[in-house]
Design goal:
This is Carboxylesterase type B domain-containing protein. The protein is of the alpha+beta class. The protein is 34% helix and 12% strand. It has a domain of 34 residues. It has a two-stranded antiparallel ribbon with strand order 1-2. The protein starts with 11 loop residues before the first helix and ends in a 5-residue tail after the last helix.
Length: 68
């Protein structure tokens, strides 16, 4: 699950990116990428490198469509 984030040489750049996003969000409400919304479900996939992904769980979300 954590891939290369654990072990003797964890990626410091990844830790810095996650930390920076949390600080930016806590300080001003903007983690540094497009806001998540119903028209564009943008989420950050942290990794080496990190990337913004639109609606990564669309198929799982579609399974629940109409279920109340």
């Amino acid at each position: 699950m954590m891939g290369g984030a654990l072990g003797p040489t964890p990626p410091q750049g990844l830790a810095d990116a996650v930390h920076g996003a949390w600080i930016a969000f806590a300080a001003g409400g903007d983690p540094g990428w497009t806001r998540y919304g119903t028209t564009r479900r943008a989420v950050m996939r942290f990794g080496v490198p990190s990337t913004v992904v639109d609606d990564p769980y669309a198929s799982e979300r579609a399974l629940w469509a109409g279920v109340r």
